[in-house]
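Field: COMPLEX_INPUT
Field: COMPONENT_COUNT = three
Field: RESIDUE_TOTAL = 1484
Field: MODE = joint
Values follow.
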Amino acid sequence: MHRQLTVGLILLFACPVLAQSEETFVTIQKVEGNRMAVVKDAGGGRGMRSGAQSADVTSQPAGRGRFAGRRPGGMTTAQSAIITVPATAKITSGMRERRTSEFRAGAELAGGLKNRIFQNIQQPLSARIVTEGDRILEINVITAETDINQSNTDSAGQAVIAIRPKRPPMKRK
Amino acid sequence: MTLSRRIFLAFSLLIVASHSARAQNAEGIKFFESNIRPVLVEHCYECHSTKSDKARGGLKVDSRDAMLRGGDSGPAIVSESLTKSLLYGSLLYGDDSDYQMPPKGKLPDSVIADFRKWILMGAPDPRVTTINANVDTKVDLEKGRTFWAYQTPVRTSPSKIKSSSWARTPIDGFVVATLDEQGLAPVDDADARTLVRRMFFVITGLPPAPDEMTDWTKRIDEASSEQSRQIAVSQLVDQLLESPRYGERWGRHWMDVARFAESTGGDQNNIYQHAWRYRDYLIDAFNNDKPFDDFIREQIAGDLLPIKDDREWADNVIATGFLAVGVKLVGEEDQQKLFADLIDEQIDTTTRAFLGTTVACARCHDHKFDPIPQEDYYALAGIFRATTTYYGLIKAQARQATTLLDLTGLGPPHGTPALSKKELADLIADRDAARAELDEAMKKIRSGVNVFRGTLRRLRSQRDETEAALQGYSEAGEPRVFAMGTQDREFPLPTRLLVRGELDKPAQEVPRGVLQVLSPAGRHTLAARMKDSSIRRRLDELGSPSYRSISGRLELADWIASPDNPLTARVIANRVWHWMFGRGLVRTVDDFGQTGDAPTHPELLDFLAIRLIENNWSIKSLVREIALTRTWQLASSFDESNFTTDPDNRFLWRMNKRRLEAEVVRDAMLAVSGQLDLNRPLGTYLRAVGEGGVGQNVFEPVIRGITANTRSVYLPRVRNVLPEILDVFDAPDASFVTGSRETTSSPLQSLFLMNNPFVQRQAEALTDRVSKYPASERLESACMLALGRGPSETEIDLAMKFISDVSNASSLTTEQKLAAYCQALLCAAEFSSID
Amino acid sequence: MKPPFCHNMTTSLSRRDALKSLSAGFGFLAFAGLSSAQAAEENKNSALAPRVPHFEPKAKRVIFLCMRGGPSHVDTLDYKPRLKRDHGRASSYGTPWMASPWEFKQHGQSGLWISELLPNLARHADDLCLLRGMHCDQPAHAQAMVQMHTGNFQFVRPSVGAWTLYGLGTENQNLPGYISINPPTATGGAQNYGNAFLPAACQGTKFTIQDSSQRNRMIDRLRRGEANPYGINNAVNEQFSKSVQRSQLDLITALNREKLQQDKHNPLVEGAIENFELAFRMQDAVPEVMDLSDETEETLALYGINEDSTDGFGRQCLLARRFAESGVRFIELGHGSWDQHSNIQTALADNCVETDKPIAGLIADLKRRDLLKDTLLLWGGEFGRTPYSDSGTGRDHNHKGYTMWMAGGGVKGGFSFGATDEHGYEAVENKMHVHDWHATILHLLGLDHEALTYRYAGREMRLTDVAGSVAREILA
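Field: COMPLEX_OUTPUT
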């Protein structure tokens, strides 16, 4: 089983993008303990746009509601796998920036895989998995966080108009 | 099924699926070409393609990437998913008219079926952006490296500097050597009064008060020797440099260079409510005589510099407002284009401000005049592309809004007063009411009632504005501290040279780096530079050994601020010379390239550059040194023979006469009338006008209605809506780097001086001051207050004649006549100029 | 994709060059009391004294009616029967052809086809010279606007009005030589009436009067505030009587002359002396020219003043005539927006209602005062519009083919020059680029566009850059 798992991993993550680590875009179907059922995104792996799948009423005009529920998922079951997430892997939020289509990782999710977004997954979560060789380094889950290009307020009510900058290192000496 | 069997099944399906995917590809492309592409061209390209230069809703459909990226609402196409492919949804012509495409009419069912088939088969699409052939350069870098401005400044040994009885300082030695060469002779030294007035205006931007004038002229005139005279002068210089007025004056100079303004300008002109922090940073930096190399590094890479405490961190971040306050066309739909233009603006400003080089000219082709290949532009672009710029604005008001940087609790002062409990409650209530209104409207829409699109837009805008207003405060009503600035991305973005600067024509990938002509061959890339141990050492000295930035911006800043960069010290030394003399040694202060002027005193320029570096890049030291030269203390007297040879005074045979800048004219009027309020105001006056674009949510009359007797540097600086007095007297509109202001001469200035109520009010206030003197002294004290000197005999006659003419012709009171006289003094050319 | 907006070559112009031209051999202006001509006589070397053009001019002054936003030519002045036939059919540009909702008829002896949107203008068909083959380089407002005014959309160059002043000076030294009424603040802003590297005196002076029709007035008042009745700020002194002000001005000038005498050479002070005098004269001349009370009721009605839709632009047109009469050399009026991407049926009709009568009134008024023969009228926008529909209810930008017209000032009347293709999309016959338009304007003013140059940045600069040819076919 281990071997199959490993082979599955290798095939699953067979599209190197970054020089050293590799990223794969997936949709998380279900999380159980430290195991995760994922489906690899086909066709370029763009993942979901941040905020677009939130429950924000304003970004979903009525027209789309008509077929939003008709085909749940609408995806093939090919290229799915179950992976075990090592304890050392970092679980963070993530978002795709509109300007450059670049994916950026956000802050770590409290509780890792125990975070509430992984319980009772209704709509599959888009995420990026960063691996090195066959080791999973990071899983960045797209959450309804606003990105630098302000999205509309999400229905959770928290608008973000300013973010804390990243702290540079302290001067030594 | 056991877990292992399930995995095995998934595994095999994976192989099968990928195999079949491969097999379909060629057929899929064929299908695309015959059934999908023609439809896109005919029905979609008009509004969603590069060819027609349109990107409605931020969406282009003319390439695979563009469709997968999508627009404002999300990806247009998601492989194999009909529900996620917004394009398909809109073809179906749902209820929302925003998502009925094409707008002219629903496409035939067979076409829609084709799209369905195409998406489900994985949306194969051959329209990937082709990489163009490498663009070669014809720039001869070897030859370019010989240009004067790219040579390291040469130290002239003191013995080589001409000794002359006239020269008092080494700078004078250089000047008199050139004068001799040109057959010119310096005029007399300025008299004490002229000198004192000049000193005050140049260093602090304010006239001396009468008692200051009397006091200093006495000290200078009564000095027994030249030496003690210079001691008195140096005491004056030191006093003025210590005054906080100096920072307000010289910070304003730098604001010209940094194209500082409090709005986006461009198409929508939205207000930057937080730009003022950068303004105050500049003023404080000059007052504290921050070493100029630190100043450079902080403005380019402040967010990346190692820090000793929170406050330093916050101030450094605020400094990066330099990169954020430029012009932006925030109504732009195409995100990629906006990003590219933002980078371009940053490259242009950075290179012109610090290096006097117009690198942005190389965006579309090799620089036409300077040895800057197109690759250099993209080498720099790679660094800025790895940077995110935070400038705020409200999403509902500006399509291209971003978040701001939150510095609450790190030390910078608040920019707004704290809220009372009631005010906070009001803000919350406003926000809730706006939300409720919007929810109402959304409910209506969902239940089928038609809601006017404009109303929906207004409600969304209202919700966002009230939310943002509330977000400006903590839960306790304490103002939060926001700033505009930059941050690095997670990873740098590979950058390709763009043929003719066009986004859809990428050519070779260009590694990040600095200007080639300023580096030895092949050593200009960031990678190559990081191999140089001396460069690494210098970076380590910033405080955190081995710390490097992701974007390369820190390394870029260090390259610019390096004493080894031949341009940097020269450019700033030249700017200081320009601000001291009214004209630089290189007249084209923003352009040290081929189309700029050559320096009139090349050795002197090098001397100043080296001095500056040796004095730890202290601007105050340079100002002081220049002010104590005999050259700077010359009179501005006319001399026939000198004028014939050198009418423009390029060689400094006298001091230049100049009209004062707009801010100084206004400040002088307020100082003289006694109305000037020297306190720094809280934050920005634009607080009162709120967020939004000028003409949409914010209105010109409201901005122009802001009046304050504060120093002009603190007045609201909205692009295209400058205060009238500043506009009329040539304050720059902050579209680009302006190291040298124009001095226009127009009847509108005269009309302003004669008729504008502001001038009349100052004249009246001046009259009040003057009226405190006995009647016989009033004319004189008016002259003293306004011009810093007593009136001449002729002027007394003129004044008396004026008073009598006016008395005969009208029934003005004594006060009014005196006010008319005082106003005439304010209108006189002498008031708004220095000799 | 259109190349990105290029950068200005340089922003640090030498004002010394400009001021030099003001002060070389300068003689002081005569003070109030002298007639304008006499003042000009004494002032031959003043920057704006009238100059003799290169050759005999047809026009002595220009009135440019700038229709911002790009007016649709296929709905107004370019009749395309084929477009009518093909209405609704797919065009080769994506969206279907859209015929003009309005009828075209022939007018005047010349039989020019003009749409029913412009009934008043149509009555003057025999005065119009339609330029139906216009084209320019950029379909974006800002660039096209700047190109229309300065000949160049990449660099900061002087406007056509500034070049005109540079070549011809102005007749009335009491008023600015180049006046632009209600110029747009965006789409180029002050660049559109700026002088760039030409002497400062060639700059246009911006006048602001209440915009468009009365229905927009409230919005404008909100956005921009109350417009000054004199068109410029600070035009009038509210504090002192004329004689007090004159005394005050004498004092200021005397003080300045004192200083000038001491300085022996100071272009700034010379400029100040001249400007105060001009400003003083403007105080009288501007309110006088802006005051319509000496116009007859009939004249006001002719322009549609005090009538709801036409009041705003009517006032602009009447002022233009008054400026022209007073010797102002180049006058630009502004109306907008003609950028009908949608709702063309109402919005375009409204625009025409607001401008048609006033423009016709201007033509008639100039004619009966015998001014039309040497006043060149220009009408047009920065581009035209597409004959296929944009959104279903409007038209998109079209820089490839559109219509402008000229009247008076030496052009043929009742004439049509140039043509677009059968749908009205692209100019195909006697194409006229903005450079050609500029060259022709200068020619009518008696200036050779290749000889009217100014040395700057190492080059001999001219309005038409390295292009432009005079359209001799339209010269009367």
